[in-house]
Specification:
It is a single chain. This protein is of the alpha+beta class. The chain has one domain (9-141). It contains four helices and seven strands, in the order αββββααβαββ. It has a seven-stranded mixed beta sheet with strand order 1-2-5-6-7-4-3, covered by helices on one side. A hairpin with a 5-residue loop joins β3 and β4 (52-58). The radius of gyration is 15 Å and the shape is globular.
């Protein structure tokens, strides 16, 4: 990813039509016709040129595991899994915004230092192991948010 000025999640979501407050524990956001997932920039699989290819929405092991969300319920994780179900059922389209970790590898501990002004439109794909991926189809750069 090229070096870009980071924005606040609130400003990116506002440009997508989200009008309510997104709490720090929200990892995904329901915009009525789409679900917008906070998909960490450094966790995307990328091609040789650095273009975004796919991001895990539901994993078998740790991370975004459905079992993890049931065994160790956390508000953001449980909400995320419900949103994955809405996408899988065809009730919503998947999109992603890209937080940049303050300390890569420690996403939950240190949070995000900001969001790239990028929106990814995609589709879901299930691999042979049963993991669910958001596959990038279109990447859009957003305008810079005002500093108001």
């Amino acid at each position: 990813m090229p070096s870009e000025a980071l924005q606040r999640r609130k400003h990116i979501l506002e440009q997508l039509g989200h009008e309510t407050h997104a709490s720090r524990s929200s990892w995904s956001h329901d915009l009525g016709d789409t679900i917008v997932f906070d998909a960490w920039e450094d966790r995307w699989e990328k091609d040789d040129e650095g273009a975004l290819v796919r991001y895990p929405l539901r994993t078998i092991r740790s991370g975004y595991s459905l079992n993890d969300s049931k065994e160790n319920p956390r508000r953001g994780h449980t909400r995320w899994q419900g949103h994955v179900d809405l996408v899988l059922s065809g009730q919503r389209r998947p999109r992603a915004i890209l937080p940049v970790a303050a300390s890569p590898g420690k996403h939950g501990n240190n949070g995000a230092k900001g969001w790239l002004p990028i929106v990814v439109d995609g589709e879901t794909q299930v691999d042979r192991q049963g993991q669910i991926w958001l596959v990038a189809k279109q990447v859009t750069r957003l305008r810079q948010a005002s500093r108001a």
